[in-house]
Inverse folding.
């Protein structure tokens, strides 16, 4: 099959439409069923205790709004770039650029965070070295073609689901637990619940990866909305089951105090043979997230390069492997440098702020859709936009300042480029 010419790509080679619903669902699951579920439960418990279950519901609702807006837009504009494309089409060039800039810088930081998670679980004494190695290895996988990436993603998603189901089954099967912990809301505040929602939202922020592959899926108007809905529903169900099991096994206080809640929950079951499998599951989950993150960032970089907002040399598709190989190499190089130098918590906080800006633009874009364009009910993008703003404000001050500063830098670069034009 010859590659299609991408819209707005000049003489560039387009990307092959080879992904079906199952492939797109795997992309979303490998993005959402990642390191977040292994890392976010403890800080969420510190913020809200058992109220983290309410925070999980809030995060899931916000993810639903964002996913619905993204799906409707992706069906209308099935090109690589996600909200970068939607914002340009619906709100103007600047807002699309700001979304694309936020996505590229924020998700590149997420790549570093996922790589560091691999390092800390696999070999804590050499976490940064393992992180860099993971980035390099998955850059090679992505370079060899998106179909090979789907094959790797299927293996990772299957293994992570087996581990999570195993932990839940072990808790309910061998540990009586404290079911009262699920309703112990003493001392829980609305602010704490909101903070836990912000922390847990980081674990959901992967469904838009499906939309960024819009140029590579078959029948995008049908495939993208269906895949996003299926992937999100599965993720919410799995996260809820895991959160309930861990709360029952550990209680809010013990959960808040541990750095590895799923490992600790497996430990209290008395089944010590589970521990290496849980740790291995965390490594695989982080690798799955890293793989899909690098896919999404490279495709958005390709779209921005086509329009001159990133170096034009990134606007290239490999004639054999049919992937944006220069963009993938650039993303891999930057992520490897960050993985070797940055702090995990700082990378996550910065990424959260940037991705919330990205989704805010997506919801604002969806609000402008008309009935003949597949517009969602207006309450969906309104709630999504307001939710993104509220959760962004609830982030730590350092993350907000750093994120706002980098976005301001991007806006300044846009202004300078516009003046030169």
């Amino acid at each position: 099959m010859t590659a299609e010419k991408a819209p707005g790509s000049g003489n560039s080679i387009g990307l092959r439409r080879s992904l079906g619903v199952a492939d797109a669902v795997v992309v979303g699951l490998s993005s959402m069923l990642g390191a977040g579920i292994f890392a976010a439960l403890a800080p969420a418990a510190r913020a809200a205790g058992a109220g983290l279950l309410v925070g999980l519901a809030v995060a899931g609702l916000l993810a639903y709004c964002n996913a619905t807006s993204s799906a409707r837009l992706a069906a209308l504009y099935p090109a690589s770039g996600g909200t970068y494309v939607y914002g340009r089409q619906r709100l103007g060039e600047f807002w699309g650029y700001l979304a694309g800039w936020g996505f590229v810088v924020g998700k590149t930081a997420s790549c570093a965070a996922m790589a560091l998670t691999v390092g800390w679980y696999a070999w804590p004494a050499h976490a940064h070295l393992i992180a860099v190695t993971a980035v390099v290895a998955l850059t090679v996988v992505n370079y060899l073609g998106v179909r090979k990436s789907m094959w790797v993603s299927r293996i990772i998603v299957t293994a992570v689901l087996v581990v999570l189901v195993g932990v839940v089954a072990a808790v309910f099967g061998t540990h009586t637990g404290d079911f009262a912990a699920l309703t112990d809301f003493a001392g829980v505040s609305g602010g704490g619940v909101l903070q836990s929602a912000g922390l847990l939202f980081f674990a959901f922020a992967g469904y838009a990866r499906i939309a960024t592959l819009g140029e590579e899926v078959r029948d995008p108007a049908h495939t993208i909305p269906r895949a996003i809905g299926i992937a999100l529903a599965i993720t919410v169900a799995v996260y809820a089951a895991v959160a309930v099991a861990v709360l029952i096994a550990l209680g809010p206080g013990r959960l808040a105090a541990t750095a590895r809640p799923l490992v600790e929950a497996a430990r209290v079951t008395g089944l010590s043979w589970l521990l290496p499998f849980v740790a291995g599951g965390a490594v695989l989950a982080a690798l799955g997230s890293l793989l899909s993150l690098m896919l999404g960032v490279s495709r958005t970089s390709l779209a921005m390069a086509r329009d001159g907002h990133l170096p034009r040399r990134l606007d290239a598709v490999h004639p054999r492997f049919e992937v944006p190989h220069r963009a993938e190499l650039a993303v891999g190089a930057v992520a490897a440098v960050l993985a070797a130098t940055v702090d995990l918590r700082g990378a996550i906080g910065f990424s959260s702020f940037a991705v919330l800006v990205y989704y805010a633009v997506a919801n604002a874009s969806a609000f402008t859709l008309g009935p003949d364009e597949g517009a969602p009910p207006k309450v969906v993008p309104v709630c999504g936009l307001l939710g993104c703003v509220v959760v962004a404000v609830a982030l730590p001050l350092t993350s907000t300042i750093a994120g706002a500063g980098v976005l301001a830098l991007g806006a300044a670069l846009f202004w300078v480029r516009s003046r030169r034009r």
